[in-house]
Design goal:
single chain; mainly alpha; 217 residues
Protein backbone atom coordinates (compact mmCIF):
# COMPACT_ATOMS: atom_id res chain seq x y z
CA UNK A 1 0.00 0.00 0.00
CA UNK A 2 1.53 3.32 -1.08
CA UNK A 3 1.41 6.70 0.67
CA UNK A 4 -1.71 7.89 -1.14
CA UNK A 5 -3.63 4.77 -0.17
CA UNK A 6 -2.52 5.02 3.46
CA UNK A 7 -3.56 8.66 3.49
CA UNK A 8 -7.01 7.76 2.14
CA UNK A 9 -7.45 5.06 4.75
CA UNK A 10 -6.47 7.47 7.51
CA UNK A 11 -8.74 10.18 6.13
CA UNK A 12 -11.64 7.77 5.84
CA UNK A 13 -11.22 6.70 9.44
CA UNK A 14 -10.87 10.19 10.89
CA UNK A 15 -13.71 11.76 8.92
CA UNK A 16 -16.39 9.14 9.44
CA UNK A 17 -15.46 7.94 12.91
CA UNK A 18 -18.59 7.95 14.98
CA UNK A 19 -20.84 8.56 11.95
CA UNK A 20 -23.28 5.68 11.52
CA UNK A 21 -24.89 6.94 8.33
CA UNK A 22 -23.58 8.52 5.16
CA UNK A 23 -25.68 11.62 5.84
CA UNK A 24 -23.82 12.12 9.10
CA UNK A 25 -20.51 11.81 7.32
CA UNK A 26 -21.50 14.37 4.70
CA UNK A 27 -22.56 16.84 7.36
CA UNK A 28 -19.17 16.43 9.01
CA UNK A 29 -17.53 17.20 5.66
CA UNK A 30 -19.19 20.58 5.48
CA UNK A 31 -21.95 19.89 2.96
CA UNK A 32 -24.60 21.31 5.26
CA UNK A 33 -22.59 24.53 5.62
CA UNK A 34 -22.39 24.87 1.85
CA UNK A 35 -26.12 24.33 1.39
CA UNK A 36 -26.86 26.90 4.09
CA UNK A 37 -24.50 29.34 2.40
CA UNK A 38 -26.16 28.89 -0.98
CA UNK A 39 -29.59 29.42 0.57
CA UNK A 40 -28.41 32.67 2.17
CA UNK A 41 -26.81 33.80 -1.09
CA UNK A 42 -30.07 33.22 -2.95
CA UNK A 43 -32.18 34.98 -0.33
CA UNK A 44 -29.93 38.01 0.12
CA UNK A 45 -28.68 38.53 -3.43
CA UNK A 46 -30.95 36.71 -5.89
CA UNK A 47 -34.26 37.33 -4.13
CA UNK A 48 -33.16 40.49 -2.32
CA UNK A 49 -31.63 43.63 -3.77
CA UNK A 50 -27.97 43.23 -2.87
CA UNK A 51 -26.70 41.85 -6.17
CA UNK A 52 -26.67 44.77 -8.60
CA UNK A 53 -25.24 48.26 -8.18
CA UNK A 54 -26.26 50.52 -11.10
CA UNK A 55 -23.18 52.65 -10.46
CA UNK A 56 -21.03 49.60 -11.22
CA UNK A 57 -22.94 47.98 -14.09
CA UNK A 58 -26.42 48.72 -15.40
CA UNK A 59 -27.59 45.15 -15.90
CA UNK A 60 -30.79 43.36 -14.97
CA UNK A 61 -31.05 41.13 -11.90
CA UNK A 62 -31.74 38.16 -14.18
CA UNK A 63 -28.47 38.79 -16.03
CA UNK A 64 -26.67 39.15 -12.72
CA UNK A 65 -28.05 35.85 -11.43
CA UNK A 66 -26.99 34.12 -14.64
CA UNK A 67 -23.47 35.55 -14.25
CA UNK A 68 -23.30 34.47 -10.61
CA UNK A 69 -24.40 30.89 -11.29
CA UNK A 70 -22.11 30.66 -14.33
CA UNK A 71 -19.17 31.87 -12.23
CA UNK A 72 -19.72 29.13 -9.64
CA UNK A 73 -20.27 26.34 -12.17
CA UNK A 74 -17.55 27.57 -14.51
CA UNK A 75 -15.13 27.97 -11.63
CA UNK A 76 -15.51 24.29 -10.75
CA UNK A 77 -15.14 23.13 -14.37
CA UNK A 78 -11.99 25.18 -14.98
CA UNK A 79 -10.46 24.15 -11.66
CA UNK A 80 -11.27 20.46 -12.11
CA UNK A 81 -9.86 20.31 -15.62
CA UNK A 82 -6.70 22.11 -14.51
CA UNK A 83 -6.21 19.87 -11.47
CA UNK A 84 -6.44 16.75 -13.65
CA UNK A 85 -4.14 18.16 -16.31
CA UNK A 86 -0.32 18.17 -16.24
CA UNK A 87 -0.65 21.62 -14.67
CA UNK A 88 -1.94 19.97 -11.49
CA UNK A 89 1.28 18.01 -11.08
CA UNK A 90 3.34 21.15 -10.49
CA UNK A 91 2.62 22.96 -7.24
CA UNK A 92 4.22 26.20 -8.44
CA UNK A 93 2.52 26.16 -11.83
CA UNK A 94 -0.88 25.38 -10.36
CA UNK A 95 -0.48 28.08 -7.71
CA UNK A 96 0.34 30.59 -10.44
CA UNK A 97 -2.64 29.45 -12.48
CA UNK A 98 -4.88 29.71 -9.43
CA UNK A 99 -3.67 33.23 -8.72
CA UNK A 100 -4.34 34.38 -12.28
CA UNK A 101 -7.80 32.83 -12.38
CA UNK A 102 -8.69 34.20 -8.95
CA UNK A 103 -7.55 37.66 -9.99
CA UNK A 104 -9.64 37.41 -13.15
CA UNK A 105 -12.72 36.37 -11.16
CA UNK A 106 -12.19 39.13 -8.59
CA UNK A 107 -11.72 41.80 -11.25
CA UNK A 108 -14.60 40.60 -13.39
CA UNK A 109 -17.17 40.22 -10.63
CA UNK A 110 -16.36 43.59 -9.05
CA UNK A 111 -17.14 45.16 -12.43
CA UNK A 112 -20.63 43.65 -12.73
CA UNK A 113 -21.86 43.21 -9.14
CA UNK A 114 -22.06 45.37 -6.07
CA UNK A 115 -18.83 45.18 -4.08
CA UNK A 116 -20.33 43.04 -1.36
CA UNK A 117 -21.91 40.64 -3.86
CA UNK A 118 -18.63 40.29 -5.72
CA UNK A 119 -16.77 39.28 -2.55
CA UNK A 120 -19.47 36.79 -1.62
CA UNK A 121 -19.51 35.23 -5.09
CA UNK A 122 -15.75 34.69 -5.13
CA UNK A 123 -16.19 32.97 -1.77
CA UNK A 124 -19.05 30.95 -3.27
CA UNK A 125 -16.80 29.84 -6.13
CA UNK A 126 -14.29 28.53 -3.59
CA UNK A 127 -17.07 26.91 -1.55
CA UNK A 128 -18.47 25.18 -4.64
CA UNK A 129 -15.05 23.82 -5.57
CA UNK A 130 -14.44 22.58 -2.03
CA UNK A 131 -17.79 20.83 -1.81
CA UNK A 132 -17.56 19.20 -5.24
CA UNK A 133 -14.02 18.10 -4.46
CA UNK A 134 -15.43 16.12 -1.55
CA UNK A 135 -18.45 14.73 -3.38
CA UNK A 136 -16.88 14.00 -6.76
CA UNK A 137 -13.20 13.36 -6.12
CA UNK A 138 -12.38 12.51 -2.49
CA UNK A 139 -15.30 10.33 -1.36
CA UNK A 140 -15.56 8.28 -4.59
CA UNK A 141 -11.84 7.50 -4.39
CA UNK A 142 -12.25 6.43 -0.78
CA UNK A 143 -15.13 4.12 -1.66
CA UNK A 144 -13.17 2.51 -4.48
CA UNK A 145 -10.19 2.04 -2.21
CA UNK A 146 -12.31 0.39 0.49
CA UNK A 147 -13.98 -1.85 -2.09
CA UNK A 148 -10.61 -2.84 -3.58
CA UNK A 149 -9.20 -3.62 -0.14
CA UNK A 150 -12.24 -5.74 0.72
CA UNK A 151 -11.88 -7.67 -2.52
CA UNK A 152 -8.08 -7.96 -2.14
CA UNK A 153 -7.67 -6.16 -5.45
CA UNK A 154 -5.13 -3.57 -6.53
CA UNK A 155 -6.27 0.03 -6.05
CA UNK A 156 -5.72 2.70 -8.71
CA UNK A 157 -3.08 4.86 -7.05
CA UNK A 158 -3.86 7.81 -9.34
CA UNK A 159 -7.29 8.17 -7.73
CA UNK A 160 -5.69 8.30 -4.30
CA UNK A 161 -3.19 10.90 -5.44
CA UNK A 162 -5.96 13.09 -6.88
CA UNK A 163 -8.02 12.79 -3.71
CA UNK A 164 -5.02 13.78 -1.61
CA UNK A 165 -4.35 16.76 -3.89
CA UNK A 166 -7.98 17.90 -3.67
CA UNK A 167 -7.93 17.73 0.11
CA UNK A 168 -4.82 19.89 0.12
CA UNK A 169 -6.48 22.40 -2.19
CA UNK A 170 -9.53 22.50 0.07
CA UNK A 171 -7.32 23.54 2.97
CA UNK A 172 -5.94 26.41 0.93
CA UNK A 173 -9.43 27.57 -0.06
CA UNK A 174 -11.04 27.30 3.37
CA UNK A 175 -9.04 30.11 5.01
CA UNK A 176 -9.67 32.67 2.22
CA UNK A 177 -13.38 31.89 2.43
CA UNK A 178 -13.31 32.84 6.12
CA UNK A 179 -11.48 36.07 5.29
CA UNK A 180 -14.04 36.93 2.61
CA UNK A 181 -16.88 36.30 5.04
CA UNK A 182 -15.27 38.57 7.62
CA UNK A 183 -14.83 41.30 5.00
CA UNK A 184 -18.55 42.03 5.22
CA UNK A 185 -17.94 43.58 8.62
CA UNK A 186 -15.33 46.01 7.26
CA UNK A 187 -16.87 47.56 4.12
CA UNK A 188 -14.72 50.68 4.07
CA UNK A 189 -11.52 48.64 4.11
CA UNK A 190 -12.69 45.92 1.73
CA UNK A 191 -15.54 45.81 -0.79
CA UNK A 192 -16.42 49.49 -0.36
CA UNK A 193 -12.88 50.62 -1.09
CA UNK A 194 -11.92 51.98 -4.52
CA UNK A 195 -9.33 49.19 -4.68
CA UNK A 196 -11.89 46.55 -3.84
CA UNK A 197 -10.77 43.74 -6.13
CA UNK A 198 -7.08 44.25 -5.33
CA UNK A 199 -7.87 44.10 -1.62
CA UNK A 200 -9.92 40.95 -2.18
CA UNK A 201 -7.01 39.32 -3.98
CA UNK A 202 -4.69 40.35 -1.15
CA UNK A 203 -7.00 38.75 1.41
CA UNK A 204 -7.07 35.53 -0.60
CA UNK A 205 -3.28 35.40 -0.95
CA UNK A 206 -2.97 36.10 2.79
CA UNK A 207 -5.39 33.23 3.38
CA UNK A 208 -3.21 30.93 1.32
CA UNK A 209 -0.25 31.96 3.45
CA UNK A 210 -2.12 31.21 6.66
CA UNK A 211 -3.25 27.86 5.26
CA UNK A 212 0.34 26.95 4.44
CA UNK A 213 1.37 27.74 8.01
CA UNK A 214 -1.50 25.62 9.33
CA UNK A 215 -0.42 22.67 7.21
CA UNK A 216 3.19 22.98 8.29
CA UNK A 217 2.57 23.47 12.02
Amino acid sequence: MDGAQRWLLHRRETKIAGCRTRAGALVSLGSADYVAGVVLLVLVYYVGDGLIDPDVADISKQAGIAIGVAAMVGGWIIYDLAARSPLGKSQAAFAGFGLVMTAAAAWGLTHVFSGRAAYIHVGAIFGTIMTLNVWMRILPAQRKMIAAAAAAEKFDASLGAQAKLRSKHNTFMAVPVVFLMLSNHYPVATYGNRYGWEIMLSLIVAGWGVAKLIREF
